[in-house]
From TrEMBL:
The keyword ATP-binding appears for this protein: no
Pfam families for this protein: MlaE (PF02405)
The protein's name: Probable phospholipid ABC transporter permease protein mlaE
Keywords: Membrane, Transmembrane, Transmembrane helix
Superkingdom per UniProt: Bacteria
Molecular function terms from GO: phospholipid transporter activity
InterPro entries assigned: Permease_MalE (IPR030802)
GO CC, alphabetical: ATP-binding cassette (ABC) transporter complex
Length: 152
């Protein structure tokens, strides 16, 4: 995304929008942000469902545990609230990554080399921001106490 928007900046496509008194943000950034959310969220939900199904098949078919036991412990430890929190985190991560990459591409300068530098900068910034946001969101949503008791 950074390279695509950066190439638009270098090719003066964004400047052409500005010259026509058209704000380029809604056309260049907002559409990509909406597309990212609309594609990543369903993909995440499918991957989550497949992960749960694969775990169930592994526990029941490979390890020979009863399906009822798996369902009991699955429902005991996986709360719907946790699934909602994870979905909220995914949406926030998508917005962060898309925003960083769009920003770096939008303000790229210096030709193709500058676009490459902006792409590297966007990747590094995304990694740091995702790790930081994940820590902050995890503490905000679940706190420091896991509320899972393993003792009798």
């Amino acid at each position: 995304m950074t390279a695509e928007i950066g190439a638009m900046r270098i090719a003066e496509e964004i400047d052409a929008l500005e010259a026509q008194a058209i704000d380029p943000i809604p056309y260049v950034v907002s559409t990509r942000l909406l597309a990212a959310v609309l594609t990543v969220v369903p993909t995440y939900l499918i991957a989550l469902a497949l992960g749960f199904l694969t775990t169930k098949l592994t526990v029941t078919a490979v390890h020979g545990e009863a399906a009822g036991s798996f369902e009991h412990y699955f429902q005991m430890f996986v709360e719907p609230r946790d699934l909602v929190y994870s979905l909220v985190k995914v949406v926030i991560f998508v917005v962060i990554v898309t925003g960083v990459h769009a920003y770096q591409g939008f303000y790229a300068t210096g030709g193709p080399e500058g676009v490459g530098v902006a792409s590297g900068r966007a990747i590094r910034a995304s990694l740091v921001l995702i790790a930081t946001a994940d820590m902050v969101l995890t503490i905000a949503m679940w706190g420091f106490d896991t509320e899972i008791g393993f003792g009798g």
